[in-house]
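Could you join me in thinking about how sequence relates to backbone shape in a protein? We need material for that, and I hope you will provide a protein of your own picking. Once you have written the record down, we can walk along the chain together:

…
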Amino acid sequence: MESDSLTQEEKQILLRLAREALESAVKEGKLPPFENSFLTPHLCEHGASFVTLTVNGDLRGCIGSLEAYQPLADDVREHAMAAALQDPRFPPVQPGELNGIRIEVSRLTEPVELEYSTAEELLVKLRPHVDGVILRDGLRRATFLPQVWEKIPDPADFLDNLCYKMGAEAGVWRRKHLTIQIYQVEEFHE
């Protein structure tokens, strides 16, 4: 992603758009009006993002998409609102919480399939702190952003937790060949 990285100015624009979307969503229940004429071509290109909300370093909401289907600026705005109001793990953000919330934006590369034949080979091929991982088993799927490695640095534990998030029992990745995709992120925060 290095050659295609966002500039500092583009990152600041996205963080500002995310903050405006968060505050409008919490106070008014909808996204604010949006004028995109000032956006760079980068921000108008289709892009996939996750928006993570934290309070004192603790997760408060995180919503995103794995596939690019709309302009990156719109994707970030939409996911900032969804992280505040629609993350099923948390109650909706309340107006009194806004000053304590920090926003992190992760811009994703396109996921690619990770070829492996055994559970041991899978563990060797994963790159902690570099790869985000998507696990897929039939219609079920789950992902962890690369930032999750900070909390779960062991690859086996990482995959066990990802199985649990997907709704499967931990360790299913050892017994069954799952579809695994990896991606990287360009992460920035307030």
Notes: The chain has two domains: 2-108, 112-184. Strands lie at 48-55, 58-64, 101-108, 112-113, 132-137, 140-144, 179-183, 185-189. The first helix runs from residue 8 to 28. The helical segments are 8-28, 41-44, 72-85, 119-125, 155-166, 172-175.
